[in-house]
Design a protein that fits this description.
It is a single chain. By secondary structure, the chain is an alpha/beta fold. The protein has 2 domains: 3-118, Response regulator (Rossmann fold); 128-218, Arc Repressor Mutant, subunit A, CATH 1.10.10. 40% of the residues lie in helices and 22% in strands. The protein has 8 helices and 12 strands. The strands form 3 sheets. Strands 2-1-3-4-5 form a 5-stranded parallel sheet, with helices on both faces. A 4-stranded antiparallel sheet has the order 6-7-8-9, with helices on one face. The chain has a 3-stranded antiparallel sheet with strand order 10-12-11. Strand 4 (76-80), helix 4 and strand 5 form a beta-alpha-beta unit. The radius of gyration is 18 Å and the shape is elongated. The structure holds calcium ion (CA).
Length: 220
């Protein structure tokens, strides 16, 4: 059963969401403010976080940023009331996966949640990734295409693994730099693009999609 954390301060909305999602068979818990959301969001075991933007104290943007900074990779879906908040979600690199504008229909919300849960990273315990004719053995640092060894650099391998673990999710260049090279490394976004170009050339253009204005998504 998927576990969902709702961070929402308005009791009626929180209650409606909670009962609706419980009926859908989800295991649901509610945090009533940003502080609590930021603490509870760090707990292991969540499959999705529904995060309201306007919260007393710490707002949804801060909570999202904090969770991502703490290495929480659970999909985050923003609940937003106003268009300028929506623009902010798209414009800032918050590490959010999706947003839904209030008032929303329960059916639309459920569809968005299902889509996010389906897009969850799928990694086999032995860290063997397979897509199309490509096989990546992360433990042995080996990549094969149609059985033939492909020469990839350590950074290309790390980038590939990061994208593949987030299959179906858009990762911004900024976020990729954080995850692959590390926040303290100076590397330009253009260099990220170049690594993606190299991977596409070696493994097939279809494995990584460019999402205009947002970043890259692994579709292999
Ligand atoms: Ca609110």
């Amino acid at each position: 059963m998927a576990r969902i954390l709702i961070v929402e301060d308005e009791p009626q909305i929180a209650f409606a969401l909670e009962s609706d999602l419980r009926l859908e068979g989800y295991d649901v818990e509610v945090a009533k403010d940003g502080e609590t959301g930021a603490v509870r969001g760090r707990e292991p075991g969540w499959d999705l976080i529904l995060l309201d933007v306007m919260l007393p104290g710490k707002d949804g943007f801060d909570v999202c940023r904090e969770l991502r900074k703490a290495g929480v990779e659970v999909p985050i879906l923003f609940l937003t009331a106003r268009t300028h908040e929506t623009e902010k979600i798209l414009g800032l690199d918050l590490g959010a996966d999706d947003y839904i504008t209030k008032p929303f229909s329960p059916r639309e919300l459920r569809a968005r949640i299902r889509a996010r849960l389906r897009a969850r990273p799928v990694v086999e315990p032995d860290e063997l990734l397979r897509f199309g004719d490509v096989e990546v053995d992360l433990a042995r640092a080996e990549v094969k295409r149609s059985g033939a060894a492909i020469d990839v650099t350590p950074m290309e391998l790390k980038l590939l693994a990061t994208l593949a673990r987030n299959r179906g999710r858009v990762l911004s260049r900024d976020r990729l730099i954080d995850l692959v090279w590390g926040r303290d490394t100076y590397i330009t976004e253009r260099a990220v693009d170049q690594h993606v170009v190299n991977l596409r050339r070696k493994l097939g253009a279809a494995i990584i999609s460019s999402i205009r204005g947002m970043g890259y998504r692994f579709d292999g």
